[in-house]
Fold this sequence. Notes:
One of its GO terms (cellular component) is cytoplasm. The chain is an alpha/beta fold. 18% of the residues lie in helices and 26% in strands.
Amino acid sequence: MNCGSGPAPATMVRCRQCSASVAAPPGARAVQCAQCCCVTRVGGAGRQLSVMRPIPNFGGGRGKKRAVLVGIKYTNTRACELRGPINDVKCMRYLLTERFGFANDCVLILTDEERDPCRQPTKANIRMAMHWLVQGCSSGDSLVFQFSGAL
């Protein structure tokens, strides 16, 4: 006799990029479409909150070394524009790839100078990048997160 202790059924979500049906496991906040790789956030009762296109090479880095580098200089905001964050990110990428052997596709950079909206340091993009950073990691992996900007 089953008293409801079995696994909860998956919720079906429609991808807004290609309109394919994607199964969202119970408690999932986002799902990735297997057809177009678009990431769709999942809300209560299967409703879609927003859609983010995948960052190019976002899933490419599956090595033992991965990094997320964020540089925000606050261009076109009421805050004073900073001069160094973009340079900090470029220097860190050079250090990681040349000195510590990180592969180029394992270093994800988010800056406010990027034209691609998926590479800009928004809250949603930073959260997705952090998820990518820790996804599938195991003991002995090298993970780097750098933030350069004002708090």
